[in-house]
Amino acid sequence: VRAYCSGAVSIIRSTVTSCSARLSGGVVYVDRGESLSVAGVAFINNRADVSGSVLYLSRSAYPNEATTPSSISNASFIANGGITIQTVNSPIVWDCRLGSWMPTEGVFKGNFSVPECYPCSAG
User: pTM of the predicted model, to two decimals?
Assistant: First the structure.
């Protein structure tokens, strides 16, 4: 899916396998889109030659522009190549279990799932 200056994009109750892109966003590439919502999706064995084998999310560089954060719930990311998700000025709200967390922006690599997310360290 390539969404440029688009409205909201949703992927719900799906399994997405073996997608690829020559640049970024093997499954979804969003540039200046309204928001992305992912719920109940398994992303397996996807690739991108540059970044974001599953998701590449980029928003406007204008800090005062009102935007809705993307959201990810009940999703798994398994055996995707390189950088799985990359965000640029595009925060993600993760539906993590109590006692776990995910960063809202940046680069995400490897296998992970939501709502498990990353465990909080004791302390």
Answer: 0.91
Q: Are 113 and 95 in contact (CB under 8 A)?
A: no
**Neighbouring residues of 73: CB distance < 8 A, sequence distance ≥ 6:** 38, 39, 40, 94, 95, 114, 115
Q: Contact 56/24 with Cβ under 8 angstroms?
A: yes
Residue type, 66: A
Q: Do the beta carbons of residue 73 and residue 100 sit within 8 Å?
A: no
DSSP 20: E
The residue ranking higher by pLDDT, 92 or 67, is 92
Task: Assign 89 to helix, strand or coil.
Answer: coil
Give pLDDT tens digits for 77-107: 999 999 999 999 889 999 999 999 999 999 9
Burial class for 36, CB neighbours closer than 10 Å (0-12, 13-18, 19+) = buried
Rg (CA), the chain: 14
- For 8, what's the count of Cα atoms within 13 Å in the CB-facing half-sphere? 10
Whole-number Å distance between alpha carbons of 36 and 95: 14
